[in-house]
Amino acid sequence: MIEIRDVHKQFVAHTGGGLFKRGAKRVVHAVQGLSLQAADGRITGLLGANGAGKTTTLRMLAGLFPPDAGHIACDGIVVRDAPLKALARMGILGDAHGLYPRLSARENIAYYGRLQGMDADTANARAETLARLLDMQAILDRRADGFSQGERMKTALARALVHDPANIVLDEPTNGLDVLATRALREALRWLRSPEGGAKCIVFSTHIMQEVEQLCDEVVIVSHGRSVACGSVPELLELAGEARFEDAFVKLAFPQEVAA
Ligand SMILES: Nc1ncnc2c1ncn2[C@@H]1O[C@H](COP(=O)(O)OP(=O)(O)OP(=O)(O)O)[C@@H](O)[C@H]1O
Q1: Which residues form the ABC transporter domain (predicted)?
Q2: Residue 66 Cα, ligand 1 centroid: separation in angstroms?
Q3: pLDDT tens digits, 177-211
Q4: If pLDDT is split at 50, 70 and 90, which confidence band does 260 have?
């Protein structure tokens, strides 16, 4: 279970300037009041436009930097207080997949297993199981350099799942994937959500409506760093009084623009 409560984060960005001139500083309010509650055995989508604050939120959940304010916990463990303990309960697929190019897919996966404290045989057996789940047996013993985008994503996802975490966090996982790879990923996520797949708590960010409609049990709409609405797709349609989800999203995420 993942709980994010009223989280805030601002950055100082440098604007303008030049080779010999300092630019001005500008405060960017990347996240300014975002909350999310993701339960086990459910897929929760963080849906927002470009720059809405999704990646920043997921990076704080992954303990990469702390929030300025607010509460982030995984299975009751506060990420800020015990990041390693919280991370051990999460499998994270970030926006950069960062595979070791000289290692095979199997070695990339097993190496992460070893870092998670698994012995070599267990890590290797787990790589085989995940290769079957993600339909990547054909590339398991190929070196990662030269992998396609879809092959890189599958390897990175298998690596994130090697320690069989109860919580799975994915940042825009279908970015750059073709229709078959996207469908395969959806299938894998549905299985991981099911009781046979471990009833995982799955959180992913996206700006793609179709993905949310097809996968999510719960959607949190993020706009300008804030969570502005949450619920199932039918609940959000009802809340917005719209028949199409895209129209509901625009109405809930950008009410001023719609009214103008
Ligand atoms: N390190 C940083 N320094 C300055 N500004 C940042 C930094 N990281 C993020 N931002 C800004 O914070 C805002 C939110 O960015 P974020 O990457 O979280 O959005 P997002 O919803 O993931 O967008 P996208 O869908 O385009 O990836 C943006 O305006 C971004 O420019």
Answers
A1: 2-249
A2: 15
A3: 888 888 888 999 999 999 999 999 999 999 999 99
A4: low
Q: Would you say residue 155 has pLDDT above 90?
A: yes
pLDDT digits (tens, 9 = 90+) for 34-72: 999 999 999 999 999 999 999 999 999 999 999 999 999
Tokens of 144: 């990662």
Break the chain into its structural domains and give their ranges.
Answer: 2-89+165-259, 99-163
8 A C-beta contact, residue 115 and residue 96:
no
* Residue 204 phi, psi (nearest 5): -140, 155
Cβ(30) – ligand 1 distance below 6 Å: yes
Residue 172 structure tokens: 């825009």
Q: Which helix (H) or strand (E) holds 196?
A: none
User: How many CA within 13 A on the CB side of residue 4?
Assistant: 29
Angle at 92 between CA 86 and CA 98, to 5 degrees: 130
pTM, to two decimals:
0.92
The alpha carbon of 62 is separated from its chain's Cα centroid by a whole number of angstroms, namely 10
| Environment class of 125 (CB within 10 Å of its CB; exposed 0-12, middle 13-18, buried 19+) | middle
DSSP secondary structure letter of residue 22: P
150 Cβ below 6 A of ligand 1: no
User: What tens digit of pLDDT does each residue of 115-147 get?
Assistant: 989 999 999 999 999 999 888 999 999 999 999
ipTM: 0.96
Nearest CA to ligand 1 atom 6: 11
- CATH level 2 (architecture), domain 2-89+165-259: 3-Layer(aba) Sandwich (3.40)
